[in-house]
Amino acid sequence: MSDVFNLPDWANNLAGSFFSGSTETLAGDKTMSADDAMILKMDPDGSNRDVTLPAEGDVSPAGQMHLIVNAADAAENLVIKDDGGSTIATANQNEAALVYNAGVQGETESSWVLVALFTIALS
Question: Does 101 score more than 50 pLDDT?
């Protein structure tokens, strides 16, 4: 994997959660935990939904990333926010957002950042 994605050795040691995925239909806003899957396919189910990322202090010291896929069947958005309520990205229908947090470096917590916003085709 590291050859393809240029991942550091520590990333390949995260065997339990790295490249894990889940599918979820949201009945309301979602607050993520540090244990959520790396790849999250979410259906907003009829309404725009806020997706709040884990608190920076809960992120692994090695860092964490999530690919959040909007699997809406209509024009519904996933508004991705940090735990302070600031919007990081908005994934519209047929879009996915890749977000990353570098974790705690010394005593400094890293912030969530948008790495990329993709247009996708779900089947």
Answer: yes
